[in-house]
Amino acid sequence: MYRSTADDRIAQARHTADVPDVLPWHSFAAFFRGRVGDAQVAGRTFLSYYDDDRQVHRAYTYAEFGRAVERMAAALEGQLGLTRGDRLATLLFNHDQT
């Protein structure tokens, strides 16, 4: 039985109709840093969260989300000693503050 690798699945995803084969970013991190650091894009919505049961709607711009990511990264490094290459697993609820 053939099992596709991550590289196979990425290549498949890139071969869709009318989508260029080469993206301008080499990773999601490069894409995200580019958006957070681009003054023309940083104010655009990156994430919208809806909870119909609680009637909650929150939206985060690239800049706001980028700051939250930086704060979390600093806490993981400073408080837990995590560094580049370490792995972290989470088991959390599906909501915007996760």
Topology record:
Layout: H1 6-14, H2 28-37, E1 45-51, E2 56-61, H3 62-80
Antiparallel strand pairs: 1-2
Helix pairs in contact: 2-3
Describe this entry's structure for a reader:
This protein is of the alpha+beta class. It is 39% helix and 13% strand. It is built from three helices and two strands; from the N terminus they run H-H-E-E-H. Strands 1-2 form a two-stranded antiparallel sheet. A hairpin with a 4-residue loop joins strand 1 (45-51) and strand 2 (56-61). It is globular and about 40 Å long. The N and C termini lie far apart (37 Å). The model has no long low-confidence stretch (mean pLDDT 83).
- The average pLDDT is 83
Order of helices and strands: HHEEH
Q: Specify the structural class.
A: alpha+beta
Distance between the termini: 37 Å
Helix proportion of residues, in percent?
25-40%
The number of E-state strands comes to 2
Percent strand: 5-15%
Supply database-style keywords:
98 residues, globular, 2 strands, 3 helices, 13% strand, two-stranded antiparallel ribbon, alpha+beta
State the gist of this model.
This protein is about 40% helix and about 15% strand. With about 100 residues, the protein is α+β, with helices and mostly antiparallel strands.
